């Protein structure tokens, strides 16, 4: 069993194809992956699980909050969770990013996501 097989990643993406693709790629890389299509679903998952190590979220999503607000809420409520934020439309200002958060622009290679996760966990 590899170390990464113990890592649970919550992927939050409103575009179904992208959600499926990155979740599948991360599973193939050995990660345990949970999926949410908006921030409200993500919060419910976070409230029900204690094993989430990484939040990988898109910025632009429908619902009560976007990915930046979600990441701020996660930083406040679940400080140990590492955060990766992605977008193909905007690059958030440094002060809009949560403490310790990493921005990964779209389009991204699946290997870049896994490498970023490993970097955050190192």
Structure description:
- This protein is α/β, with parallel strands linked by helices and 122 residues long.
- It has one domain (3-121): 3-Layer(aba) Sandwich (Rossmann fold).
- The protein has 4 helices and 5 strands.
- The chain has helices spanning 16-28, 39-48, 67-77, 110-121; strands spanning 8-12, 32-36, 52-58, 82-87, 102-105.
- A 5-stranded parallel beta sheet has the order 2-1-3-4-5, with helices on both faces.
- The radius of gyration is 13 Å and the shape is globular.
- Residues 1-5 have low confidence and may be disordered.
Strand order of the largest sheet: 2-1-3-4-5
Strand content: 15-25%
Count the domains: 1
The largest pleated sheet is described as: 5 strands, parallel
Write out the CATH superfamily name.
Response regulator
Task: Indicate the overall shape.
Answer: globular
Domain Response regulatory: 8-121
InterPro entries: Bact_response_regulator (IPR050595), CheY-like_superfamily (IPR011006), Sig_transdc_resp-reg_receiver (IPR001789)
Modified residues (4-aspartylphosphate): 58
Keywords: Phosphoprotein
Question: Secondary-structure blueprint of this entry?
Answer:
Elements: E1 8-12, H1 16-28, E2 32-36, H2 39-48, E3 52-58, H3 67-77, E4 82-87, E5 102-105, H4 110-121
Parallel strand pairs: 1-2, 1-3, 3-4, 4-5
InterPro entries: Bact_response_regulator (IPR050595), CheY-like_superfamily (IPR011006), Sig_transdc_resp-reg_receiver (IPR001789)
Protein name: Response regulator receiver domain-containing protein
Pfam families: Response_reg
Characteristic key phrases:
Rossmann fold, 4 helices, 122 residues, five-stranded parallel β-sheet, 22% strand, CheY-like_superfamily, disordered N terminus, alpha/beta
